[in-house]
Design a protein that fits this description.
Blueprint (H helix, E strand, L loop, with lengths): L1 H23 L11 E10 L3 H5 L5 E15 L4 E6 L5 E4 L7 E10 L1 E10 L4 E6 L2 E8 L8 E9 L4 E8 L5 E5 L2 E4 L3 E9 L2
Parallel strand pairs: 1-10, 8-12
Antiparallel strand pairs: 1-5, 2-3, 2-4, 2-6, 2-7, 6-9, 7-8, 10-13, 11-12
């Protein structure tokens, strides 16, 4: 009887030891990529090329320089999707009237997001042709480099597929001529589409 009972003692003791050892192990850390999803941000126009060109006589370019694209998650934190560095990346908003431009691709933690914002640097300008000469004039964008251009929207980032976010620029509501070769841009961007793209 003693031997038979003894046969159960070793497995039980071994099980207790294994459980004790397991409780002392550090928690399993998943790789960072396990909790992230890919996001691509694109830019287009919602007016025709002719409409863009008719805004101001001789206009050839409305240039903005995008430094960063950020997303606001549901815990109140801004997360960077695209960082184009200190100099930013310049886009001619007239050219994208009949095209689509890639602002950048980045990764975000999976979860829900409630806002986007484009943070500009100060290298924004407008090109105007006068008497067959091209003039580059400064373009003021109030708040563009501080608070950024914000868009309220809701989207979810998952690991399952890349998320494409297409932003549409409305020129007729955005550009203001103030006289004396001074121009101000109060950019009106809209969310055109948010769609997952399977790899």
């Amino acid at each position: 009887m003693t031997d038979k009972k003894g046969c159960f003692i070793i497995p039980v003791v071994l099980s207790i030891c294994l459980l004790t050892a397991a409780s002392c192990l550090p928690p399993l850390e998943l790789p960072a990529s396990f909790n992230t999803g890919e996001v691509e941000v694109l830019l287009t126009g919602n007016a025709s090329y002719d409409t863009m060109k008719s805004l101001i006589p001789g206009i050839e370019g409305i240039w903005i320089s995008i430094a960063r694209v950020e997303a606001h998650n549901d815990d109140g934190t801004w997360r960077t999707i695209v960082d184009n560095g200190g100099e930013g990346m310049r886009f001619n908003l007239i050219d994208i009237a009949c095209d689509i431009a890639v602002v950048g691709i980045g990764v975000l933690e999976t979860g829900l997001y409630t806002q986007l914002r484009l943070v500009l640097d100060n290298d924004n300008s407008i090109d105007i042709v006068e008497n067959e000469l091209l003039r580059e004039l400064p373009l003021a964008v109030p708040g563009g480099s501080e608070t950024g251009i914000k868009l309220v929207t809701s989207f979810e980032v998952t690991r399952a597929a890349r998320l494409n976010i297409v932003l549409s620029f409305n020129p007729e509501k955005s550009l203001v001529a103030m006289g004396n070769d001074r121009f101000r841009l109060q950019p009106v961007f809209e969310i055109e589409t948010i769609s997952p793209v399977a790899d």
